[in-house]
Write the structure tokens for this entry.
Amino acid sequence: MTGGATGASNRPPADRAGLAGPAPTGAPSFSPEQLAEVRRLQGLYPDKRGALLPVLHMAQETFGWISLPTEEYVAGLFELSPAHVHEVVTFYTLFFQQPKGRHVVAVCHNLSCYLAGSRELLEHVKAQLGVEAGETTPDGRITLQSVECLCACEAAPMAQVDDRYELNLTPEKMDRILERLR
Amino acid sequence: MAEKVLMRNFDRNDSHTLAGYRATGGYSAWDTARGIEPAGITEIVKKSNLRGLGGAGFPTGTKWSFIPKNHTGPVYLVINADEGEPGTFKDRYLLERDPHSLIEGMLIAARAIRSAVGFVYIRGEYVQPWRRFSAAVKEAYDAGLLGKGFDIVVHRGAGAYICGEETGLLSSLEGKKGWPKIKPPFPAIKGAFGAPTIVNNVETICCVPPIIARGAEWFAGLGTKTQGGTRMYSVSGRVKKPAVYEESVSITLRQLIERAGGVSGSGRLKAVVPGGGSAAILTATEIDVPMDVDGLKTVGSMIGSAGVIVMDESVSIPEALLVLARFYAHESCGQCTPCRESTGWIYKMVHRIVDGHGKKDDLDTILDVAKRGGGTTICAFYDGAIGPYISYIEKFRSEFEALCR
């Protein structure tokens, strides 16, 4: 803390990466079953580090997103520096470095989807949810993203909604999909 | 319409199951291959003129032969299922609808290169294909096809286009950010985890069982003089029937567009991207070209991943370039300065032009920056980006100029 001289004395110290969002309560940790799965995954690779992406997927499913304490916890499981895990987490788009909504809606904006009206579709979704791409609705229900090619160009425009590909979208079809997300 | 080789099982409801695959003769090619010496398998694949279908078009059998003969340590087979090239969706179909053909192809390829472990790197967004393929791998283990001299590890990526580049993929598989590596050494000498490694695309390996089952001459005869077989063309954009079409690699682009129902929208063709986002764009007068690796070279473009994106007269080429320029700026891994800086700045400049604030000089600046950077980076990503930058502007310059002051 640099104190009142910066005019920001009431703010907590900025974390190392300048990330927003509340810290998770308590230190993250996997269950014994999950730790066994971590060891199984590590054993599949000639160097256990190969299991880093699969274990980070596990961590995100378990803890909701990848916080700095989670990075440190995972680093410990691999005997890696937390900086290495941070470098990996920040490189890939599917790892969230702040809390995400209960659902993620990722509208493809690449060429084939653009040619099929993805720009108008995204504008429609933004208006319906009242958020910009990259933001989460205030009730924590949906995180909206605008993403590069998801490789379902035959059914453009399309979006990934959580695990599912939703194809041949229209604003009306999108509305029905959004309504189902609770 | 060509004979279906890769999509032969797609019409079956149970094509993704072991029972369904076996019902159409599945795994009989593996039975045959088990009786052939490894070098013999590589020779057959060489004679078939199979060329890599992920983008680079390198002869597959030749690639396999690069594994050092006297090597005694582990050798890895890595399957590139990190499909991400804009306009390409064929591997998704293969993973979902015929996962066992990939497993059988891997068994045969692994025998050829003497590999005991194969990794299948599936893009993180492909959750359903990942589940389908993983279920097929489990079936293959339960049936004793895997686990007896060859194992498959299914690996999920986490969202990064650059991991489709083979050395970026290997970095990612090793648990690092997906930074490509300097070649040489090529992966066949020093690849995954430092061991000799062959990286092949999904569709490429799915060609291998039919080649073994029906012979190299048959496969070679399906294509052109320098490339055998059929391939799966992903056709999207302004066509009436966007879909994946399996055709001989000798089909012309004009025929392929007709196959996809012809041009939609205004009905008048303006331009086509013939081989995924990174391929140079072709005008309506350049489509009488065969869609094989060498054919597209004659018109200064590339077949790449065979993702065909059709644009009719109503499409704005500057706006289409803006979409791709944003993509390259976002996906540059940041390792090499010419790529990291140029993709970012060119995106901003194209943005400015499309917004109506461009200057006439901007076009020459973009062309100059794009051309200077070619061949200066570790991987082919930036060379792929400059294909669109240069071709969109040079072939449709008046459209860009009309937007500039």
